[in-house]
Amino acid sequence: MKALMNIEGFRNLNQDIETIINKSDSIKKLKVKGDLTPKEKIRLSEEEREYKSLRKQIQEKLIKFATRIPIFMYLTDFRERSLKDVITQLEPGLFKKVTGLTVKDFELLVSLGVFNSALMNDAVYKFKRYEDSSLSYTGINKHEGEDVGLYDTVIRSDEYIAAYEKVDESQ
Asked: Would you state the pLDDT for residue 65?
């Protein structure tokens, strides 16, 4: 939770996160109890509503954080390295400035499963395709022939080009 508090927008949610945990426990206890009085049913529905509202707030904050990742990728020039390596080894200071997270916080979120590796690889690939399109439009291609780093893996230049052309053919 401390890592989440370092992300702008999460700093004021500490109390809300504690409330979510407490509400979750309370809801589970009431549901296990079974036969509820009308008063307990009302309390249960109110707690479930508050729990869902707070969860939604946290999801929105994570989405806001996710929108900062492309900004970070745009600002770095380590295209041939995986995003994880760029964050943890090459540009940790820039990552902290853009997202508010330290490398330690990022690694904690990774260990908690916040980032789905397959989805992140796909998102980074699509970002780089978009970036390539905009750069080639201007006539600039300073990364030609270089390997392409995704989220946690690197693909060879020829694989990247083949995948890029395959997507273009299907459109």
From this structure: 78
